[in-house]
Amino acid sequence: MTDSVWGHSKVSSNNRQKQDHTHPLFGADFRTLWHIWRQSGGVLPGKRKQLLSAFLAAGARFPFSVAESLYVAASLTRYGPDAAPIFIIGHWRSGTTHLYNILSKAPHFAYVSPFATALPWDFLLLARALAPLLKKQLPQHRYIDRIAVEPDSPQEDEIALANMTPLSFYHALYFPERFDRYFNAGVFFEGCSATDIAHWKHTVSYLYHKLSLAQPGRRLLIKNPVYTSRVSILREIWPKAKFIHIHRNPYKVFISMRNFYSRLFEQFAMQDWHGIDIDEVIYVTYARMMQGFCAQTAGLQEDRFIELQFSAFQRDPLAQIHRIYDQLGLEGFDTAQAGFREYLASVGDYRKNKYQYSDGLIEEIGQRWQPFIEQWNYSAPA
């Protein structure tokens, strides 16, 4: 084995990417910004202008946000309850995005658009009016890989929720000096009061209703790795929700997660992040998330829960999607099949990131994640 690309547990600052002038928090409301900034401990001098711009943007959007909230409140009296969502879950870097991108091509599914992600308070009215301008601001591809971002590219809802509530793991990436506090609250609700969790439930329900208003007549399809450890809470909100879990070889997940954290910190951190032991974060989070997932999905009915192996999905995605439709009792596979095939053909030449492993790293992953490696019958890479 050759040495890992990252030969240690704390990522080097060499070859840092050029920082963008924008930031995901530009779509946050004033209350959320104020709450997280007060507890953040300050930001780097070079980031103060960025944070101030986020506050100014919140102030400028406030009248439009109020108008949109009134519009949404009125809609609640006109329409019945929304259908329970279908959730794609799985630890980060396990294939959730690829699965989401394919399934979203079905005309009967609604999803989270880039505009809803960037402006969750305003995407029904203001973002629609500013669509030509916002399209120009979209990045060419995701920051963590080479997956293209288009105006109709489905996004996970976590960045949107980070702009609406203090309970999001993205705040740990934005303010890494409070990493443990923000991360554990944002992923596991650790240290959160019943009021905090109730507010999060209300916020996510509000966001999903807006997504349904934007794409009427479609069932909401949501992808968010954080929800891998929140199945029970989601079922409290939507008892009839369905879950698609996709898992990947944990050895590959670990290496890919190093890249995930380093790139997102470089792009979004407003504080110094180099003291964070990224390897330990990955080890602890994966084990804790999967333990919670296994406990919360035990005994779920077959028409509410299905598991996929990422490698099997890569080999024959259409067969796996057909299995999803059959087991979960979903209609419309035949009408959606052409869209699935077209998307798969468009990404046929996509090149995945490649990584190397040290012998010591393979041994440690095997020891610390042994129960999950055995549960899904994985083996160490050659």
Polypeptide structure, described:
This protein is mainly α and 382 residues long. The chain is built from 18 helices and 5 strands. It has helices spanning 30-40, 48-78, 96-103, 114-118, 126-129, 131-137, 158-162, 170-174, 179-188, 194-214, 231-237, 250-268, 278-297, 310-315, 317-328, 333-346, 359-368, 370-375; strands at residues 86-89, 109-110, 219-223, 242-247, 305-309. Strands 2-3-1-4-5 form a 5-stranded parallel sheet, sandwiched between helices. Helix 15 packs antiparallel against helix 16 (333-346). The longest helix is centred in the N-terminal third of the chain and has 31 residues, at 48-78. The radius of gyration is 20 Å and the shape is globular. 38% of the residues are buried. Residues 1-20 have low confidence and may be disordered.
> Can you give the mean pLDDT?
89
Radius of gyration: 20 Å
Overall shape: it is: globular
Order of helices and strands: HHEHEHHHHHHHEHEHHEHHHHH
Q: What percentage of residues falls in helices of 4 or more residues?
A: 40-55%
What percentage of amino acids are in beta strands? 5-15%
Cα distance spanning the termini: 8 Å
Tag the structure with descriptive keywords.
single chain; 382 residues; mainly alpha; 5-stranded parallel beta sheet; 18 helices; 53% helix; disordered N terminus
